[in-house]
Amino acid sequence: MEKISLPQLIVELKDNSALYNQWYNENEMKYGNLPSQNITSWMVEVVEPIVAAFVAVNSAPEKIHEVVKALYIESLKLIGSGQAIRYKDEYKSAWLLMVHMPNLVQRFPIKIISLLNEVLLNIHTYASEKSIDWCDLMQKTCSEIKTIEDFKIVGRICAWKCGLAHLRSRLESDFDELSEDLQQIITVAIGFDKNSNQIFETIWPNKSVNFQGVQGGFIGMDGFFENPPMLAKIEEHVFVTDSKSSYALFADQYGKVLIPAHTVDSTYILSNSERLKNLEKWLIKNNIEIDSEIITSSVKTKDTLFYTLQNSYFIYLFSIANV
After folding, report:
1. Where are the domains of the chain?
2. What is the pLDDT of residues 121-144, one digit of tens each?
3. CB within 8 A of 11, min separation 6: which ones?
4. N or C: which end of the chain has fewer CB within 10 A?
């Protein structure tokens, strides 16, 4: 505490020291030894700036206690679980977004912390290298976020821009729920100069056939599949299975995501798997040099061609807009 300089935070910690010691002991019993150096740096670098921003809008001691209590207990959980140590920069950047949203922190301290942690967990799962990018995008917009729903929607839009392609289908309706000012800020933040109605309709940035990379890989090398996968289109969705695990596949210009599809049986996917008719002609027409005989399954949507190959653990993607 000797490194903390904010008077209101010092008073809160001193006046309620017995409570804070109790919460510390409870978390130490749960997680084991809590590294004091990490707690100290987190309190000074993260908690203190958040409390300072909050105090600027509400200095009532009872509200300061509510906010500091939430920040302290949730901080101990993050440090105890190792998340705030292993991913310190990501969680620090995410939590410091609360500096720009003191009114939300005032009303929903636990909720806003929970949402921030949940978003980071999802980004770690599907686009781990984009956590800081998400925080940077959010920082450009969060000063205009007025409600929890605003935060959820803006968070989803920024997460989609960072690679979570499965979120795109719901974002057009989400976007319409935001104020015009917030819509404009987001449009600029995510780098769109198009009409806002077109933001979430642009699957690929071009209108020609282009290779868009691969998704999947062998599970023993941080991939998904134990066996070479097979694709199927079921209704409007693309599914893939290796006979043991099933996934729904989503892809656009920002990312490629495999979401576990526990309710879709692998045998059902396999029974619907096929090779597209006239695929050979399509490959030749578009100058794609691959032996079509080794293609084991393929799916075409209005925007994308997906296919799998013999003895390959990957799914291959081509944009086919307007084809």
Report:
1. 1-127, 129-201, 210-319
2. 999 999 989 999 999 999 999 888
3. 61
4. N
